[in-house]
Write a structure and sequence with these properties.
By secondary structure, the chain is an all-alpha fold. It is about 60% helix and about 0% strand. The protein has five helices and no strands. The protein has helices at about 30-40, 40-50, 55-75, 75-85, 95-105. The longest helix is centred in the middle third of the chain and has 18 residues, at about 55-75.
Length: about 110
């Protein structure tokens, strides 16, 4: 069952380093509600960027950035992963894993 528009989704993230499509807010209303809780200024900026974006990839990029903002602000494991990465203490992933992920995502695998 989906959260009400004013309630952020309670779903946990499977990987703190990657936000999958099924994780976090799943509708525009949920995303806007989550941004309003996180930072009303972020919500206003999101609304302006989203309204100005062209259909397709540009809007998808705006949505992805807003979903990352929500994840960073609401999930402690995501914030910890970012902090560890910035501090240079995180485990790096092999490049082969990145290429395999990109190939799978793009349907080349």
């Amino acid at each position: 069952m989906s959260a009400l528009p004013h309630e952020p989704s309670p779903q946990a993230y499977a990987d703190a380093h990657r936000l999958e499509a099924h994780e976090g807010p799943q509708t525009l209303a949920e995303l806007r509600a989550a941004l309003a809780v996180v930072d009303p200024i972020a919500l206003a900026a999101f609304n302006a960027r989203f309204e100005a974006a062209r259909f397709g990839r540009e809007q998808a990029d705006v949505l992805a950035a807003a979903r990352r903002t929500v994840a960073l602000a609401t999930r402690p494991e995501v914030a910890a992963a970012v902090a560890a990465s910035l501090a240079g203490t995180s485990q790096t992933r092999p490049a082969d894993e990145l290429w395999a992920y990109l190939d799978e995502r793009d349907g080349a695998a």
